[in-house]
Predict the structure.
Amino acid sequence: MSALAVDRAQATLEAVDVTKSFGGVHALRGVSLGLAEAEIVGLIGPNGSGKTTLLNCIAGVYAPTAGRIVLDGTPLGGRAGHRIARAGVVRTFQNIRLFARLSALQNVEISALATRQATRGRSRKLALRLLRELGIEELAEREAGTLSYGDQRRLEIARALAAGPRFSLLDEPAAGMNDAESDAVRAQIERVRAERGCGVLVVEHDLRLILQLCDRIYVLNEGAVIAVGTPAEVRRDPAVIAAYIGEEEHKERGDDE
């Protein structure tokens, strides 16, 4: 049985042969990906390979040009993003999208209320619990726009969790962080899986984080899947080394061109 066939047999959230074109540009070319609850899956590849576009298709930001997004066997085609979030598929963004003038607490409360995870009388308690889980409870009354970059990233994860996701799509959650901060994000994602049984799809350029965190990894290049497997399998795949890992390790060493 092929790796993809195994994925489809086990998955409850799927992208099936998804193609996305913008005019004459093909951002995705027949991409298939499966994610089960309580599974952490990585999505890596060079800049411009289609990673964020795939997240946008899954979350309902874009409608695929062809192919399907399927949740528990039911196609999600045509549903608006807020309806997909209410169905349990929630994403964060590469570019932080908080309500800068509202407090950290209010940002999380709004998410809980918008997805009907809490009533007005209970949203504050839920929001405080999530801020505590992410280690930023003491910042609850601070305006989101005044928080440090790392704390804004944590707040965005708290806001995603307030929507009660079965599946979280995280777009570069450790971007701009040092190793210690990246390790803290990894621990938080692992806790989300352990305590909530949430499936997590992570787009990230931090290979150290991805290789330590994920059960499986998909690799995109030029809008197509070129490899899928365990971290060890992907790391030694010649196509992945040529298209991505070699380039990233070269950058980490700081070698000259």
About this structure: The CA atoms of residues 28 and 223 lie 4 Å apart. The mean pLDDT is 87. DSSP finds ten helices and ten strands in the chain.
